[in-house]
Design brief:
The complex is a heterodimer of chains A (279) and B (50). Chain A has 279 residues and is an all-alpha fold. Chain A has one domain (3-165, 172-226). In chain A, 54% of the residues lie in helices and 3% in strands. Chain A contains 16 helices and two strands. Chain A has helices at residues 3-21, 25-30, 59-67, 76-89, 92-96, 99-108, 122-125, 128-142, 153-157, 160-173, 175-180, 183-201, 205-209, 212-220, 240-244, 265-269, and strands spanning 227-230, 275-278. The two termini of chain A are 20 Å apart. By secondary structure, chain B is an all-alpha fold. Chain B has two helices and no strands. Chain B has helices at residues 2-28, 31-39. The N and C termini of chain B lie far apart (54 Å). The chains are: A mainly alpha (279), B mainly alpha (50). Chains A and B meet through helix 3, helix 4, helix 10 and helix 12 of A and helix 1 and helix 2 of B.
């Protein structure tokens, strides 16, 4: 496989997958959403089901929908999707199959500002995504925030993917919805703008610090089927992989760390070809 | 050590099997219906209106 082809493979997969899972063109044209049976299933990435083009359900939205039920229940169905995707792919989903990850990647490619891999206090801030998962997605949706009516707290107060792929296209194409947009919409729009601006300078700030789905898949990274393997005996210790890693991981952390999104940049730059995707 | 290595190599299989078992259990409890009902209506919270 040619070098250019290899370099662009991930981008091509990301674009193809985003179009595939958001391909309901009628929805974009009419300000409506898809209502077919495919929405019984969750897609692997963070993909708002209120995006006019979405043909599947967002796993985090689905998790909250079950937790929002009047009777508290363990969301086995959604956990099933997460276990299957996580066990096979781990955070490969984040690197290759997440539409919001693609947006952040594209913004990071803009030649503005001096690029940084991480925010200051990264070692503390990286736990933010676990806090979001526990307090907003789980506890927030099951007990708090809504008073008597439970609400999907993450979707309502934080999710920038919902604002970008759901709110903006729907409000553009639907006059009735546009007339109802108020303070909450502008709060979410503010979060989206901050994250998109940060993405130009920092590598994937939402994925590194806030994404609850990344927190879930990170747990599976240690044993998922898709791994990046390191042939230690072939390694010439040039550290090219560490320099290239957008998440700033060390050689020993690559692949097994919960922060590795399997982008494959380390594999591409290794002169000794001692890193590769393999079971 | 050998057992641990094999266990780690095959843990994804266990996780996948558990995932399908959870999926079946969730479907039997009507949870996929809950997800579908939520996903086919415009989620006002998601778009910052609700």
């Amino acid at each position: 496989m040619g070098e250019t082809m290899r370099k662009n493979l991930r981008l091509k997969v990301q674009i193809f997958y985003t179009i595939l899972t958001n391909g309901y063109v009628y929805g974009f044209l009419n300000g409506k959403i898809y209502q077919g049976n495919l929405k019984y299933a969750c897609v692997p990435g963070l993909n708002c089901y209120s995006c006019p083009g979405a043909v599947g359900s967002c796993p985090i939205g689905a998790l909250q929908a079950v937790l929002n039920q009047r009777s508290v229940q363990i969301p086995f169905g959604v956990l099933g999707f997460l276990f299957v995707f996580g066990s096979i792919l781990g955070r490969f989903v984040c690197g290759w199959l997440c539409p919001f990850g693609l947006v952040q990647d594209l913004l990071h490619g803009i030649p503005l500002f001096q690029k940084r891999k991480r925010l200051p206090f990264h070692s503390v801030l990286k736990y933010g995504k676990y806090m979001v998962l526990i307090f907003l997605v789980c506890i927030g949706s099951a007990f708090l925030f809504g008073g008597f009516a439970k609400v999907p707290a993450f979707c309502k107060y934080l999710c920038p993917s919902g604002t970008l792929f759901g709110a903006l296209p729907l409000l553009t194409g639907n006059k009735l919805l546009r007339s109802q947009a108020g303070g909450l919409f502008f709060w979410k729009l503010g979060i989206l703008l901050v994250l998109l601006t940060l993405s130009v300078k920092i590598y994937r700030p939402f994925c590194q610090y806030l994404c609850p789905l990344g927190a879930v898949y990170g747990w599976f990274n240690r044993f998922s089927l898709v791994q990046i393997h390191w042939e230690e005996e072939q390694c010439i210790s040039c550290h090219a992989c560490e320099d290239a890693c957008p998440a700033g991981l060390s050689l020993k952390e690559i692949s097994r760390s919960s922060e590795c999104i399997r982008c494959g940049r380390c594999i591409r730059v290794c002169p000794a070809e001692c890193l590769h995707f393999r079971k | 050590m050998g057992f641990l290595k094999i266990y780690r190599q095959k843990a994804w299989l266990l996780g996948t099997a558990l995932g399908f078992a959870f999926l079946g259990l969730g479907a039997a409890r009507g949870q996929l219906e809950i997800v579908w009902k939520k996903a086919v209506m415009i989620c006002l919270e998601c778009i910052g209106i609700g």
